[in-house]
Amino acid sequence: MLLAVGIGGYFALPVDPPPWGYGAVAAMAGLAAVGAWRLPEIWGPVFTALALVCLGVLLAGARTQMVAAPKLEYRFYGVVEARVLVLDRSLSDAPRITLDRVWLERVPPEKTPHRLRISLHGDGGVTDPAPGTRIAMMAHLSPPSAPAEPGGFDFRRHAWFDGLGAVGYARTPAVALEPPEGGLTLIVHRARMHLSAALRDRIPGDQGAFAAAILTGDRSAISRETLQELRDSNLAHLLAISGLHMGLLTGVVFAALRFGLAMIPAVALRLPIKKLAAVGALAAGAVYLALSGGNVATERAYVMVAVVLVAVLADRRALTLRAVAFAALIILVIAPESLTQAGFQMSFAATTALIAVFGALRDLPEGMWRPPRWAQGALAVVLSSAIAGFATAPFGAAHFNQVSQFGLLANVLSVPLMGLLVIPAAVAAACLAPIGLSVLGLEPMRWGIAWILGVAEWVAGLEGAVWPVVAPGPWVLPLISLGALWVILWTGRARAAGAVPILAAFVLWAQTERPALLIAESGGLIGALGPEGRALSKPGGEGFVALSWLENDGDRARQEEAFARPGLGGERGCQSAEVAGETFTLVTGRGWAERLAPACAAGWVVVPQEVEQAPAGCRLLDRGRLARTGALAVYPGPDGPRIVAARRVAGDRPWTQ
Predict the structure, then answer these.
(1) How far is CA 630 from CA 100, 102, 108, 145, 576, in A?
(2) How far is it, in rounded angstroms, from Cα 377 to Cα 415?
């Protein structure tokens, strides 16, 4: 926890520490470590805590510098040549490729990004390139996008740690220049894609796409309707290859190996079959990690499973809070940026809560009532789903701006089937594939998937299935985490003190103030809070920004619905909103220059062009100024509008420069 505090403190800094700052932190860590070693025992925990916090800052700073790579500094259109790494699909359902070994026309090699991500919108050409293929295309590229609003999700930081230096799209066909080449990573990826295609051939429709997603990590074939139903029913976590899948697969392999070895007396009486089964499960997990693409969530899941299985090999209790802490420590040392990601927060919240609650139930006095043995399995499923759902709900709501009202029902009806049918059937299919009998495993797996998708469709269709949630402020999740960990780790009556930061967090969340007016960095879109919610200035275009604004408001309306709302005055091409007695006018369309002077006389003016000669005294927010400030949020204040800039909130960090 203390290491995480240091890492979180690093990412919360407004500016990156200078070299002498890192030196000071390192010296403080060393002095604290010496103090913990040499001073009286009563001071040990204090100095150990300080050393760990400082170490967290150093780890995050070192990781930031280690992944540093060139990124595009301007918009680019021209020839792109590169090697295909990963093929998936974008939010608009277009083929999307991640590329390395990049060559850009007119861009010096030292300024060329190491990796790109491009969506393919052109007809014809190569739309499904095999990993390792070198391709060429005419593409529009731009730097990773800044937050859609101050304090919003910063894709630049995500791209920095993923090594992405530019993103964009191509409307002309891509051309293959060279056939796929070798390399273990690309060979494994091609095997993944082959397995994914084979699964979709054997199991048609969304059922086959679901099977491919949980076994290979390839979610490109799942329809958008099914994906939305899984999200609304709180079953989307079944698609992400994380702790549930890795735990189920290694658990099935462990149980099968142990049972099989126990049936051979010569082996069972002479060898430690439990440890042999743990080694086999560890190997199966490694293969699953490779076939699933090895994303961050899967790597995190494998580390957690490996800690458990190594504990079995060492004859230690596997499922303990120490094991969870050790797994978190490994992940944070390897990838400190994981702390800020929803997957890390939700998976460790669920795991910690489950181990803490079931550990407390295991330690109940003998005389207390216990359910009958025949009901314990069903009760454990319901209880584990409720605990995991309760523990992850605040994090899911904060990151995805919604709470699934009937998520517990959907998980109780679906998760047991994943463990009892889908994953065991997948393991059976893999074992039977070499002799051509994989259908004996694939068909039962299809039955289980059909049930899960049916549950998702039914639950998502229930009235009030989804409760939209306003995006919280930056202190909400840290306070909830601190309070929850205090409750779990502390003993005695002082444990109740953990409720204080949790209650404070929810009070802060309930008092979240949304901006009265939002202005996009492009200057082409504004959104004003009106009587029916946020009204947008146009029904289409800049869809990602519009969707982000509405989701952060806790609003599930579509962009065209928000455009039809009252809240903006004037007419198309000259729309205005009033905040704290001052008018903000968006001037767009043909003839915008003629409308500029009257708008300037009325108040602030937003223009999606660069204005070379503005009227005297005009409070102008044109494309050039917005490029320097980023998106703007306007709040009412006692002395007039209070304007907050996204770049000021994001700070001066390596990924924002």
Answers:
(1) 29, 28, 27, 10, 20
(2) 13
Q: SS3 for 626-640, per residue?
A: HHHHCCEEEEEECCE
| Closest C-alpha among 381, 445, 444, 390 to residue 415 | 381
Percentages (nearest 5) of helix, strand, coil residues in the chain = 55, 15, 30
515 contacts 633 by C-beta, under 8 angstroms: yes
pLDDT digits over 585-616, tens only? 999 988 888 888 888 988 899 999 888 888 88
| Integer angstrom CA distances of residue 40 from 43, 53, 136, 248, 502 | 6, 21, 66, 47, 34
AA letter at 29: A
- Report the distance separating Cα 17 and Cα 654, nearest Å: 11
Are the C-beta atoms of 512 and 471 separated by less than 8 Å? yes
CA distances from 592 to 223, 305, 570, 587, 596 (A): 41, 61, 14, 6, 6
C-alpha closest to that of 245 among 176, 316, 297, 192? 297
Residues 315 and 337: their CA atoms lie apart, in Å, by 33
359: left (phi over 0), alpha (psi -120 to 50) or beta: alpha
CB environment 519-540: b (16+ within 10 A), e (fewer): bbbebbbbbbbeeebbbbbbee
Strand ranges inside 75-223, DSSP E: 76-89, 95-104, 115-120, 134-142, 166-170, 175-178
User: Does residue 488 contact residue 352 with C-beta atoms inside 8 Å?
Assistant: yes
Q: Which residue has the tokens 């001073």?
A: 39
Q: Which amino acid is at 507?
A: V
CA-CA distance, 506 to 486, in Å (whole number)?
Answer: 17
What is the pLDDT, as a whole number, of residue 11?
Answer: 94
Separation between Cα atoms, residue 574 and residue 599, nearest integer Å: 8
Q: How far is the C-alpha of 56 from the C-alpha of 510, rounded, in Å?
A: 31
**Which residues on adjacent β-strands are paired with residue 528?**
517, 535
Q: Kindly state the tokens that stand for 652.
A: 């001066």
Of residues 484, 397, 415, 491, the one with CA closest to residue 456:
415
Work out the end-to-end distance of the chain between its first and last CA atoms, rounded to an integer number of angstroms: 30
Is the CA virtual torsion 411, 416, 417, 423 positive or negative?
A: positive
Point out the least confidently predicted range of 35-44, 67-76, 130-139, 485-494.
Answer: 35-44
CA distance 18 to 652: 12
Q: Do residues 146 and 157 lie in contact, with contact meaning Cβ atoms separated by under 8 Å?
A: no
Confidence band of 565 (pLDDT split at 50, 70, 90): very high
CA distance 156 to 657: 10
